[in-house]
Amino acid sequence: MTNIIDVAVSENRKPDEIDLLELLRLIWRKKWWVVLSTIIFTVVAAVYAFTAKEEWTSSALVKQPQVSELGNYLSLQNEYANIIQNQAFSAEKLSTELFDQFSTLLFSNDIKRQFFEQSEWYIQSISDKDSVAKQRFLADLLQRYLQVARPDLKKNPNAIGITISFAAELPSDAQYVLTAYIEFVNKKVLVAQQQDFISRLEQQVNTLNFQKDQLEQKTKITRQEQLNNLANALSIAKNADIVDYFNGTLASNQGSLEILLGKDDSKFKLNDNSYLFMQGEKYLQAQLDTLKDAELIYPIEYYTTKNQLSLLIPLIEKAEQGITASSYHYLASPDYPVTKDKPKRALIMLIGLILGVLFSIIFIIISSKINNYEKNCF
Fold it and tell me: What is residue 59's predicted lDDT score, i.e. its pLDDT?
């Protein structure tokens, strides 16, 4: 009965179909093909795994600097704020300003390019490459190996700082280059801040010098006007024969006074330029002689401006000597990678083994179908 069923099943099977048991028998008969294919693929995978370039990644996490890390730049800025009476200045604002500029430069490909072009590590790495290979290597460094990323606040609302990472063939190179890049950007920030600070100081000095010159000129003009007015009044007093005054009335010829006043009994101000001559020749001459020899007296604003200048000019000299500060604070400094990113040798060899087995099985099945087809046809 069993033989009849087997025969029926065998007769109902299509010529190009292979059942599972038959496939296993076929693979067993061709087991050396499977072994050989597996060995070949595994060896090829192993060769690749042990010869491919390794990648080790060093990472760092930074945030805005603390007040204690702002160095002498904080004292310079604070001194400047006190001189110009800028009450809006604060150490926190300076810290934020530095980190904002640091963050902007971190993401700049131009800054990355400038860093690598002056880096000894990069110069040594391209020493044996042609021009095309150099450009390709630099492009890979900018786009793949040196990465800067802000936290995804949607995934983690509490995340802070900026992550910077660099991948290299050696773990020591990855850590060294990443540390050097962060310091390079920090120096760029400080140079830019120094130039901007000195420019603002110089602009402030120019403005104050202009104000000082204006006040000096105005004071001199006022003095000259006073001298001219006194001289004119003295000349009028002499012509009018007004020698002196007493209790606001003239001690000279009464007729001349009536003519000058038009018989007006109203009081007049002797300090008014129009009536200076009525102070009399004697008093006007004394004023004129005293005013000629007296030093100029400037308004309070002039001395305030002069004092600001005396403080700002030394401040420029301090700023030109250099500023020290950190535009970032490490939450995690560049680490020494202990696990390489790739190649994953064990995984590559496992994939090679699996591919070898699959290839051999597929090859055996296809070969079997071709043989069956030829038998049925001929």
Answer: 95
